[in-house]
Amino acid sequence: MSKRNKNTSQELPIDYKDFQEILLKQGKIIGIVKLFDVINIENITKEIKNEFREEIKKAKGILIHFESCNDISLFTINDFISSVRENTSFDCKVVFGTKRNHSIETNSCLLQIIFSGL
């Protein structure tokens, strides 16, 4: 298996059904896209939780998508998702995905989040 195929297989793509499941929640929808210069999950978590505290609490659906030049480990992503889930309602659906993007600088991360059902 080539290195390219091996890395691509570690991606967790978000598909149409994922978007549909999140966007069909009734209520307001808010989306954000943020580029973080350094992949430091503690800082990213803190910033997102502070900036979107109310949206995280009220959302009925949250879609989270990470893009980076380097693979972000699933352990790192799981830590972020777990931290977000700790602050959601019990019935909130959280979907996440990852993708390699070689146009993003090394050690940077593009984070896209959609909150629905607000």
Overview of this protein structure:
The chain contains five helices and four strands. It is globular. It has 118 residues and is α+β, with helices and mostly antiparallel strands. The chain has helices at residues 3-8, 16-23, 41-51, 53-58, 74-85; strands at residues 30-36, 61-68, 93-100, 109-116. Residues 1-9 have low confidence and may be disordered. A four-stranded mixed sheet has the order 1-4-2-3, sandwiched between helices. α3 (41-51) packs parallel to α5 (74-85). Helices cover 36% and strands 26% of the residues. GO terms for molecular function: GTP binding. InterPro entries: FtsZ_C, Tub_FtsZ_C, Tubulin/FtsZ-like_C.
Please summarize the sheet with the most strands: 4 strands, mixed
Give the neighbour order of strands across the main sheet: 1-4-2-3
Instruction: Give the helices and strands as they follow along the chain.
Output: HHEHHEHEE
- Compute the number of strand runs: 4
Q: Which class do the helix and strand fractions yield? A: alpha+beta
- Which runs of at least 5 residues are low in confidence (pLDDT < 50)? 1-9
- Relative strand content: 25-35%
What's the tally of helices? 5
The coarse silhouette is globular
**Between the first and last Cα atoms, what is the distance in angstroms?**
45 Å
What fraction, in percent, of the residue positions are helical?
Answer: 25-40%
Chain-averaged pLDDT: 83
Task: Determine Rg (CA atoms, Å).
Answer: 14 Å
